[in-house]
Amino acid sequence: MARYKDYNYDQLKMIQVYYEKQTLPGSFEHYLFLLVDEELDLSDFDHYRHL
After folding, report:
1. pLDDT tens digits, residue range 15-46?
2. 9 DSSP 8-state letter
């Protein structure tokens, strides 16, 4: 039988992540972020937001 940890609502910490500030310009991660954020047309996935 699986042993799961008890969930504690006090342990949740929401931290904003700014990928643009965390990636170094010229790195693979930086270009991947720019590609996904600015170049790719992701409108086909918009209907999943409303589920």
Report:
1. 777 877 888 999 999 899 889 888 888 888 88
2. G
Tokens read off for 34: 């720019």
The per-residue pLDDT for 48 is 76
Residues 31 and 20: their CA atoms lie apart, in Å, by 10
Judge whether 20 and 33 are in contact, CB under 8 Å.
yes
Query: How far is the C-alpha of 12 from the C-alpha of 33, rounded, in Å?
Result: 26
| Residue entry with tokens 């930086």 | 30
Amino acid letter at 3? R
Residues 6+ apart with CB under 8 A from 23: 29, 30, 33
Give Cα 35 to chain centroid, integer Å. 14
